[in-house]
Amino acid sequence: MTMPESRRYKIKGKKVLFREKRHCIHSKLVKEKQGNRELKCSQSSQLQNTNCAATIHLRLKLCNIELSHPLEVNLRFTHNHDGHSPASAMYDYEDALYLSAMDEQELLVLLADRMTNPNYDYIAKLFYKYREMALGDHNGTSMFKRLEEVVNDYNNSGHGKTILQEYDSCTGKAFILCVVINLMNQVHERVLQSGELCYIDASASFEPLNTSITLLYISCMVGALPLGLFITSDESEITLEKALNLLKTILPQHAFFGCESQVGPKVFLTDDSSAERNALELCWPEGIRLLCTFHILQAFWRWLYDLKHHINKEDWGPIIKKMKEILYTTSGSEMHTHYCEFKQMFYGRYP
Predict the structure, then answer these.
(1) How do residues 54-78 score in pLDDT, each as one tens digit?
(2) Can you give the residue ranges of every domain in the chain?
(3) What are the pLDDT digits (tens) for 315-342?
(4) DSSP-based three-state secondary structure for 243
């Protein structure tokens, strides 16, 4: 179970060096510190406030500092909610059998009896069956049926808007889920930078279906703030174009600080993805598309590292250093000077 820090004690004297208390994430105290968020879904176990009383109390005394285990750990393991994986449920149940057995012989009988102590395969199958009944399958018709219910509930909750396109292999329709929460609406309306520069970043390989999560966000005084996101089953140009057009339908009227959803911000900063850049050009043709310097250097380094280009290993560092000087210049004349130096140093070696 996750146990966030709930209290850090001030150290006044010299006897105690450290003292801290942690509560279960499902406790009332932790939920109050998190802002007492309402649940998006009644089955969301990660956000439930069950008023759990489980705690961990940590204390380090000066007099114990020389001991092999100086830290005092006081566990109050009194969770009042479900939260086990198949493996942890099995271990917890076996612990209970150990405590309930009168002697070693009785314990061996209990552990060996599959009616009393089912094996991991049985527990795992039971868990997956329960999850399928409660949350829907990981893929297929039942998953999309459950997801459609979640989408409808969310749209009726007043927390934001979302739109779903179900995956259909027969017609070639990709899976697309677009989300705009109320925080994103506020950023569109109140933050000037939302109409100027929009960053777009896609990440994948989070789960077995390998869906891609693409986030649109801005940078301002407080850091990065989100404008919208969409989840897709692939990162092809057609899918990204459809996802962006669907996202536009749920953006607020004042999208991009009044520029409106059909016009978009002035500049997009992307990674080196032609599919992403082409989709942006089709959906927001007036926006200027720039490459992120990080991804330029990343692609350049991968090119250097690739053995088929036959770049000597000792030249990798000097080449990437010179490339950074070209990339980070503030004037055209300075960039031209660094470029000429780059040519003079390396073009002769690698014609």
Answers:
(1) 889 988 888 888 888 888 988 887 7
(2) 5-82, 87-135, 148-291, 294-346
(3) 999 999 999 999 999 999 999 999 999 9
(4) helix
Rounded to whole angstroms, how far apart are CA atoms 83 and 43? Answer: 12
H or E, element range at 231: strand 223-232
Separation of alpha carbons 184 and 199, rounded Å: 14
User: From CA 101, how far away is CA 108, in angstroms rounded?
Assistant: 9
Q: pLDDT tens digits, residue range 166-205? A: 888 788 889 999 999 999 999 999 999 999 999 999 988 7
- Compute the radius of gyration of the chain from its Cα atoms: 28
Mean per-residue pLDDT of the chain: 86
Q: Are 198 and 218 in contact (CB under 8 A)?
A: yes
- What is the CB neighbour count within 10 angstroms for residue 296? 15
Q: How far is CA 64 from CA 11, 37, 149, 260, in A?
A: 16, 41, 56, 64
How far apart are alpha carbons 276 and 298 in whole angstroms?
Answer: 17
Would you state the structure tokens that stand for residue 304, as one six-digit string?
A: 């250097």
CB 11 within 8 A of CB 66: no
CA angle 17, 2, 80 (to 5 degrees): 110
Alpha-carbon span 194 to 336, nearest angstrom: 33
Residue with tokens 């057009």: 245
CA 339 to chain centre: 39
Q: Are 269 and 288 in contact (CB under 8 A)?
A: no
| Cα–Cα dist 39/295, whole Å | 37
- 3-state secondary structure (DSSP) of residue 237: helix
